[in-house]
Amino acid sequence: MEIEIKIDSSLAEPKIIVMTNAMTEELQRLLQKLADPSPQVITGVRDQRLEVLDPSTFIRIYANGGKSYAVTEKGEYVLRLRLYELEERLDKKTFVRISNSEIIHLKKVSCFDLSFTGTICVKFLDGSATYVSRRYVSKIKQLLGIRR
Fold this sequence. Notes:
Layout (H helix, E strand, L loop, with lengths): L24 H11 L6 E5 L2 E5 L4 E7 L2 E6 L3 E4 L3 H7 L5 E5 L2 E4 L3 E5 L6 E5 L4 E4 L4 H8 L4
Antiparallel strand pairs: 1-2, 1-5, 3-4, 3-7, 4-5, 6-7, 8-9, 9-10
C-alpha cells in the first residue's frame, strides 16, 4: 500500500482520500480502524487490580476455560477481550496466531525448534515454551520463509 501525506494549511481538519482499483480486505480493516472511535487500549487484571497493558511487554496470549490471559514480563493477567478481538488490536507484523487458543509475540521468541515431527516448538526469551498446532504449522513455516 502506498501512503502519501500532503500538508495544506487551508484545511480545518484532516481529510483522508483513498484511491484504489478495488476494495480489498486490507482497506476494509483500515476503514474500520479509522471509523472506530473507541481507544485501542488493552487492560488486564492481576491481584485484583485493573492495569493498562503495553502490548510490547506481551510474551504470549492464550485462552483457557473461557478466559483470555496475557503472559507479560511482569506476570500473567486476565484479559477482558477475546482472542479474535486482541488479534484485531495487535500489530500483525509482531503478533501471530499459532493455534485456535494462542497468539505469540515474535519479538519475544528465542527460537523455533523444528525437530518435533509434525509440529513446531516455540521457545521464548524468558525460557518458557509452547507449540504451534498442526493446523497452523504451514502458516508459521511460510512466515519464517521455510519451504515445505
